[in-house]
TrEMBL record:
Pathway: Purine metabolism; IMP biosynthesis via de novo pathway; 5-amino-1-(5-phospho-D-ribosyl)imidazole-4-carboxylate from 5-amino-1-(5-phospho-D-ribosyl)imidazole (N5-CAIR route): step 1/2. This is N5-carboxyaminoimidazole ribonucleotide synthase. PANTHER family: PHOSPHORIBOSYLAMINOIMIDAZOLE CARBOXYLASE, PURINE BIOSYNTHESIS PROTEIN 6/7, PUR6/7. Belongs to the PurK/PurT family. It comes from Krasilnikovia cinnamomea.
């Protein structure tokens, strides 16, 4: 507890945009958010009062960071599992716990556990060499999808392999891998739920996530044209997984929709890009929900605030042209309803530097406005 306010101190490991937006929610709840950032220039470190600089792989730094926190949580998955287990052993309330987070850290462990739980997953296999990959491809056909078991994000760590030669080149890099069938997906969906230590869960409306080059570019809430039956099944799947894995905090279940149903692609146990729309588009944002969950407060309403909500990511564009600030002036003049979130990050081509959310009655119109706003901020045209 922060003795100045009588309200909780939450520690978040990682100083990215997720911590930055969690801070916004913490402010409203009167909480003090502390972050462990790599650098004072990290997105969240620029705005938070209580910033500790240190590495998330340094157990001593984590231990010092966790002192006097009511709960510790993460803005990424990269804290070594054994460090989390060590802190748990010392009585730190750290969420999600090591036993759950493991399944968001390692794609091989995640696939194996999901299969064990009977969740629908693509055909997959752990592989050590090109012969293993070729044997798998003999069953499913080329191409196959290879994935680094650890450390991937935004499509980095995912490869489409079309031949044994390509497989060999990847194997030669020494990256630990799994392979999967290339799922004939119609589109991608995400089911976001939060779970508290008490065991209460809250499920957000299922959304469609639109990807380009392995990066999420748009999120449509609710997923257009998704049958009630399939939406409820996806929410129930996410709730069941949250309970079965013992997740505390948010769980984002990334899904592929095929002609016959849904399969699980990935799990994330933290605020997630597929939930940014909830800042304006839901009664309780995912960031507030995550704070409530890790502190064992009752969950907030996940109801939509408008019939159609679209979030579009703003990626860094080519340098030159109108400044970002000037672009913002023009955007605000052109679309006073567009809600802009910048993360305070240096612009690099393809890097997520912010997002825009638009709310309205008609999904087609809302989507066009969000895409136009994001493109304008990105490219200045
Ligand atoms: P990351 O952890 O980098 O986000 P993902 O496992 O989510 O990686 O994969 C990134 C994207 O690659 C997915 O959003 C999807 O578009 C595509 N993809 C991943 N796995 C498959 C698969 N088995 N079949 C078809 N497409 C896939």
């Amino acid at each position: 507890m922060d003795t100045r306010t009588g309200l909780p101190v939450v520690g978040m490991v990682g100083g990215g945009q997720l911590a930055r937006m969690t801070h916004q929610a913490a402010i409203s709840l009167g909480q003090s958010l502390r972050v462990l950032a790599e650098s004072p220039d990290d997105s969240a470190a620029l705005v938070i009062g209580d910033v500790r600089i240190g590495s998330h792989t340094d157990l001593a730094a984590l231990r010092e960071f966790a002192k006097d926190c009511d709960a510790v949580t993460f803005d990424h998955e990269h804290v070594p599992t054994e460090h989390i287990a060590a802190l748990e052993g010392e009585g730190v309330r750290i969420y999600p716990g090591s036993a759950a987070l493991l399944f968001a850290q390692d794609k091989g462990r995640m696939r194996a556990r999901l299969a064990e739980l009977g969740a629908p997953v693509p055909r997959w296999r752990p592989v050590n060499d090109t012969a293993d990959i070729a044997a798998f491809a003999a069953e499913t056909g080329w191409p196959v999808i290879a994935k680094a078991t650890r450390g991937g994000y935004d499509g980095k760590g995912v490869w489409v392999l079309s031949s044994p030669d390509e497989a060999q080149r990847l194997v030669d890099t020494g990256t630990p891998l799994i392979v999967e069938e290339k799922v004939p997906l119609r589109r991608e969906l995400a089911a976001l739920v939060a779970r508290s230590p008490f065991g209460q869960v809250a499920a957000y409306p299922v959304v469609e996530t639109v990807q380009r080059d392995g990066i999420c570019v748009e999120v449509l809430a609710p997923a257009p044209g998704l049958s009630d039956e399939r939406a409820v099944a996806a929410q129930q799947l996410a709730i069941d997984l949250a309970h079965a894995l013992g997740v505390v905090g948010l769980l984002a279940v990334e899904l592929f929709e095929t002609d016959t149903g849904i399969v699980v692609n990935e799990l994330a146990m933290r605020p997630h890009n597929s939930g940014h729309w909830s800042i304006e588009g839901a009664r309780t944002s995912q960031f507030e929900q995550h704070l409530r969950a890790v502190l064992d407060y009752p969950m907030g309403s996940t109801a939509l605030t408008a019939p159609a909500v679209v979030m579009a990511n703003v990626l860094g564009g080519a340098s030159g042209g109108m400044s970002i600030d000037e672009r913002l002036h023009h955007l605000f003049a052109a679309d006073p309803g567009a809600r802009v979130h910048f993360y305070g990050k240096q612009v690099r081509p393809g890097r997520k530097i912010g997002h825009v959310t638009v709310l309205g009655d008609d999904m087609t119109e809302v989507r066009a406005r969000a895409a136009r706003a994001a493109r304008w901020l990105q490219e200045g045209k």
